[in-house]
Amino acid sequence: MEICKPIVTYTEKDIAIPEQLKANIVHDIPQEGIEWQRSYGRSVKTVFLEAQLVSFCDDHLQDASVFNNLFEKPLLHTFWLECYDIDTYKISVRDELISWIARLQKHGVVDWLVIVFESAESRKINKSKLLSRSSVVDKIKADFPQNVKNAAERCVSLTDPLNPKSNEAYQQLLQRIRSLLSNACSRQLSKYEDFIRMQRENRNSRDWNFFRFFIMQEQLAFAFEMFGLFDEALVQYDELDALFSQFVLNSNVGGIPVWLKNLSERCDVWHGLCLSKSVYTTLRNKIKDESANLLDLRNYLFARQCELLLLHNKPWEVASRSLPFLQNCVNELNLIEVDLTEGAVACWVFLSALEILQKCERYSDSSQMETYSRFTVGLWAYARKKLEELGILCGLMPDMSLTSDCLIKVVTLIAGMGQDPHSGDESQPSPQMRLKEALSKPESFLKQYLEISELTMGTYKHIGHLRFAKLIGKELAFLYMKLNEHQKSLPFLLDLEKTYLIEKWSTLLMDIRKYILKCYEILNDYKKQVRYNCLLAATSMTETCQSEFLEKAKKLVDEYEPSEESFVMNMDEIFPIISLSVSRKESLSTFELVLKIESKLCQPVHFERLIAFLHYEPQKPVRKSNKSESNCCSLQKASKSHSEDIPTFLTFTSSVGVGVQCPNITKCLKRSDSQGTLNLDGDLQKPDLSDYFSLSNISLNPGINEFHLTFESPSRKCGIYSLTQLYLDWNDHVSFASLALPTHVCFEVISEEPRLKVMRPMTLSEPTDLISGLLQRISLELGCGSYNFVEGTLFNIRASRGLKIKLETEVDCMMGDEVSLVLKSTLKPFDIYTIPLIVFASLCNQKDASATEYQISLNYRFPGFENSTKLIAAFHMIPSFISTMKLHTLNKRKLVEILVNGITNSRFELISADLHLVEAKDGDVEIKSLIGPKTFVVKKDQTAHLLWELISENSNATAKSILFEVKYKPLDGLNPNTELYDYTCDFKLNDYHTQYSIRATVEAQKGHEFCRVGSLCHLYVIIERLVSSISFPSIMYEVIADGSFWNISGRTAGVLNETSENVFKLSFEILPLTTGFLPLPSIRLSKYIACEKQSTNANVAEAKLVAFDTGQVYNWSRGLQINVLPSSGLIIAE
Amino acid sequence: MTTASSGFGFNYYIVLIGKSDNPIYELEYSTKGDKSVDHKYLSQFIAHAALDLVEEYLFTTNSMYLKVVDKFNEFFVNAFVGAQSSVKFLLLHDSSRVDESALKSFFTDLYELYCKFALNPLYEHHTVIKSTVFDKKAQNLAKKYLP
Looking at CB atoms within 10 Å, which of A81, A139, A187, B35 has the fewest? Predict the structure, then answer.
């Protein structure tokens, strides 16, 4: 590189500087950096200075007002002398040194340095002296003129400089040189910058020349580059770049300067940009000679910028700057109206772009790939475009023919490229080689073009610019179409179609589909042709286009060969579904689907069938537990044989569903950039579903169409039906299907068995419980369930035993066990049919108040069916009243008491109560009523007591059973009639004749009038037999006394054996233990069955006591009390 | 395609882009006397291709107005993004006279218009805007700011 280093002069006095030392100094100065204090407050930078040593001559001191070169003049002057003692110095050297300094000062040079060679010996001598100022160096310093600043620093002594031991002095020298040099440089640079600025100001003057200015300012750049300030150097080039651009822009409006005119006129070659040093050095020379053309200038400028950027370690900026550079350059060529051969610019751009890319590739590493790609992708795209331009120009594109005209063009273009700057490099094909090869023949052009396209696409994808990548794909697709390889172009087009479809760019979508259709037409894909014709017919802009495509589609469909398999198309774009709703129709188990489809076609289209498929999911019908259902109602399932053929009612839960249902999960979860198209028709298979809504022979008019489809649910198919897909059959083979429905529609079908319930009419006046013994009004509720009860169905209602029923409506009818009823009207499912009934349960011999269960069954048979179904409802009734009997005895007299207890709050009047003997011989026993013809009223807590006496003439005659009869009528409620009901109740009687009577008395001891505590008393018991014939001859007596009242001494029990006597007298001694009225000890009689006589002593234990029946023993003294006095008090007799 | 030089006036194409990169509103506006050329396909094409660049520019700046994101022949593509980058506004124009501050105001006003429209509970976000009122107001904005 033509760069002059700062010059350092040397003047020798009595010494020849060793060449080795000079070389060392030149080499060592740039080894260390020095901090450079810069003018205008710019930041301090560390610079590395270089220098050249030149022997001093007088030319070096010429006036410095005009600059040809930045470092033309020496920056530092040095004076070398060798002097070992002061005397010699004073005599020979001093004058010359002073005159040298004076000369420098005269020319305004302030940067100089004196270097004194000292021998080691003289130093020793100096050291021995006490005064240090007496050395030669000190003397020299003292001799400097008064106006010299930093005099101390301007003299350096050097001892044996080539000896590494004296390194310290040498380093000091270097440091001093660097410091002085940097100051000088700085001063020189600012001067030069001022100069450049001044030059720039003159740029509008007539004789100003950009080339000259360029070379001048470039000096600055070189200097900075030399100092290691690459960014500063770059700034210089950028300034030049901007200046030049400005000139070009201004040339558009003002007059074109001569140099610019020259620049533009010389454009007859289009060498590509070359980033190798050798090439741009020649370019610089061209610039210097003012023989460069615009492209040369630009190439050089950019090459330098690139180099500096690479030196500055910013390779990605090369990439980022290159595209603007290329575009700007092309723009400039246009602006200054450079007359280039057609295609020359494209050649240049292609070559330059590839050169930059190759350069970048060398620098890129994986970590910066992303950053790089962002910038390089533009270059690739630009290069690709230019290559395409060249291809078209030279007839190399597939659909073009290579004419001789084209060949001439190619030859011209290749000639203009000049020599390949990379001709020696075999590592990779140079840009020029590639371009030349591409232009040589169509096949290799195509290869290159595809390669670059592929690369560009890949890079775009890499940095995420998918749309750009797809657009390149589109161009490739067109290329393949031209190559007649439509199969290859399809993936690109489909990919783009998918993008447009997802992003809903209708115009673009329509356009791309036209190309797709073209491909399919050529590939003769029948199905796709139909599909795309339809799609285009639906989406085209103009109506003529629409009808054209539609006609094509129709024609294709008509031509369809039935032998081929049927196919299905997605209808979402052509016939979008607007809304769906399912409702139940009036008729049984029939649903109606109201469907709104929009037809985007411009003409009505006839379809054979419209089917909406239902997905069926079996589910056990949920039997809703009816909360109002009373407990006594039972539900029995109808036999299955019935429900099989009876149309079942279906209910549905309408579309309000919670949760998310995704009908096309596979599509949602598919990778978004996977290659498969969104709407692969191959996915659409007609589902094999047996349940569907359908409608035949429909015509879809343009705009919104509404259809009503019906579906009859097959019986016994309970479960959830959900709408899955919609099908439009064009003909037997071609159909449209919806991919996804706008709403999820489902309904549930349930089946419910009929059931029967007994309901009690609720009125305020009547009690809520059902009461037997009264006419009660009930209603029988027949819940139809899912069944339909047609008119004329015969109901047979049967009551269980003890229950009489009749229909409430049939007033005159007698109560009976069974009622038949013909249904007068048809019952719809889930209707409730109420049969009002009057029931009567006769009061039975009930001894307690518990409720009795009754059942009512309902049989029905549907007309035309063999079997009948039985429904049973059960309910409970409580009796209106109950009766109990008590037997009372008065010695031999017997009294019967009947108690009638009311259970409910209803009042009943009892009339003509009577008691009969059952199975009794007349005359033996007579019943005498003790009540007279009275009426009684019973209700809850009000009991009627009725009394009769049994009179037996003969003691043997007994009544075994008696029957209580009474007539009653309710006094409350809705039984207004005075009809009397009979109530009978029979009671059993045992042997009730009194066999023994007991009399007991307690007497005080003889001589005492009263019983006293602690004094012995007597208990006399007289047992009298009242009947002659005794079945049990022996009886046993027991005296049972309360231990707290009485103390009985001696035996308290005994057996009275069979005797002829009728009266037994017994006496016991008892002791009262407390005072007051004490109840007498009770006496109990039992029949005594002694053990068998044969087994004498051992079986005493086997003797048995059998209690007497009620009424067989009469105790006269029951409830008797005796007053016992304290031991010293009076005894008052009872 | 005719260039701006063929007559006095410029062509503008404004498009609002929804969440899934779908166009939700398109407006063609021209200050040229004749509207003979149908730009729609080209405009859509350029706008769609520019989306990649808008996405890239989004992350380089904090402001909602992204200035010129793309150039295509004589067309410039200016972009503006709504909050959270959910809605993008693109303006294609071949005008050399329009200045940045006017464009910025245009976008800001258009964004405000869109925000107000989006508050309508009956409008499902990111679907096509079919409103004559919106259309009219957008036209007025274009008239106001675009030379």
Answer: B35
* Predicted confidence (pLDDT) at residue A545 exceeds the cutoff of 90: no
Q: How far apart are CA A408 and CA A424, in angstroms?
A: 28
Domain A880-988 has CATH 2.60.40.1230: yes
Query: How do residues A398-414 score in pLDDT, each as one tens digit?
Result: 777 778 888 888 888 88
Cβ of residue B53 closer than 8 Å to a chain A Cβ: yes
Mean pLDDT value across chain A: 77
Tell me the pLDDT band of A287, cut-offs 50, 70 and 90: confident
Q: What is the pLDDT of residues A612-658, one digit of tens each?
A: 888 888 765 444 433 332 222 222 233 333 333 333 333 444 444 45
At A781-812, the pLDDT tens digits run: 888 877 778 887 888 888 888 888 888 777 77
Question: What is the edge-to-edge ordering of all strands in the sheet holding A112-118?
Answer: A52-55, A7-13, A74-82, A112-118, A155-159
Per the CB < 8 Å rule, is A464 touching B20?
no
User: Quick one: tokens of A471?
Assistant: 């657009």
Sort residue A785 into left (φ over 0), alpha (ψ -120 to 50) or beta.
left
Q: Which CATH topology does B11-145 take?
A: Beta-Lactamase (3.30.450)
CATH code of the region A567-622+649-664+689-751: 2.60.40
Cα–Cα–Cα angle for A263, A267, A269, nearest 5°? 140
A765 pLDDT tier (thresholds 50, 70, 90): low
Q: What is the 3-state secondary structure (H, E, C) of A467-526?
A: HHHHHHHHHHHHHHHHCCCHHHHHHHHHHHHHHHHHHCCHHHHHHHHHHHHHHHHHHCCH
> In chain A, where are the structural domains located?
7-200, 202-464, 476-558, 567-622+649-664+689-751, 767-878, 880-988, 996-1124
Which residues on adjacent β-strands are paired with residue A156?
A115
Per-residue model confidence (pLDDT) at position A1032: 57
Out of A974-983, A1096-1105, B92-101, which region has the weakest mean confidence (pLDDT)? A1096-1105
Domains A7-200 and A767-878 are alike in CATH topology: no
H/E run at residue A570: strand A567-570
Both tokens of A715, joined, read 């019986």
Task: Answer yes or no: do A504 and B20 touch at CB < 8 A.
Answer: yes
All residues at 6 or more sequence positions from A1048 whose CB lies less than 8 Å from its CB, including other chains: A1019, A1039, A1041, A1068, A1069, A1070, A1071, A1081
Domain ranges of chain B: 11-145
What is the model's pLDDT at position A20?
78
Rounded to a whole number, what is the largest CA-CA distance in chain B?
Answer: 45
Instruction: Please report the ipTM that was assigned to this predicted complex.
Output: 0.81
Q: Is residue A593 a contact partner of residue A581, using CB atoms and an 8 Å limit?
A: yes
3-state secondary structure at position A904:
coil
Order of all β-strands in the sheet with A925-929 = A881-890, A893-902, A943-952, A925-929
Residue B37 contacts A, CB cutoff 8 Å: no
Q: Which residue type is seen at A950?
A: L
What CA–CA distance (Å, rounded) separates A551 from A821? 67
The CATH class given to the A7-200 domain equals: alpha beta
Domain A767-878 sits in CATH 3.40.50.1100: no
| B16: nearest CA partner in chain A | A505
The size of the A-B interface in CB pairs under 8 A is: 39
Q: Give the residue on A whose Cα is nearest the Cα of B51.
A: A467
| Residue B52 contacts A where some CB pair is shorter than 8 Å | yes
Chain-chain contact of A507 with B41 (C-beta, under 8 angstroms): yes
The two structure tokens encoding residue B135:
């259309």
All residues of chain B having their beta carbon less than 8 Å from the beta carbon of residue A509 are none
A775-783 vs A755-759, strand pairing mode: antiparallel
Distance CA A22, CA A851 (A): 139
Q: Write out the two tokens for A970.
A: 């309710």
Q: What CATH class does A996-1124 carry?
A: mainly beta
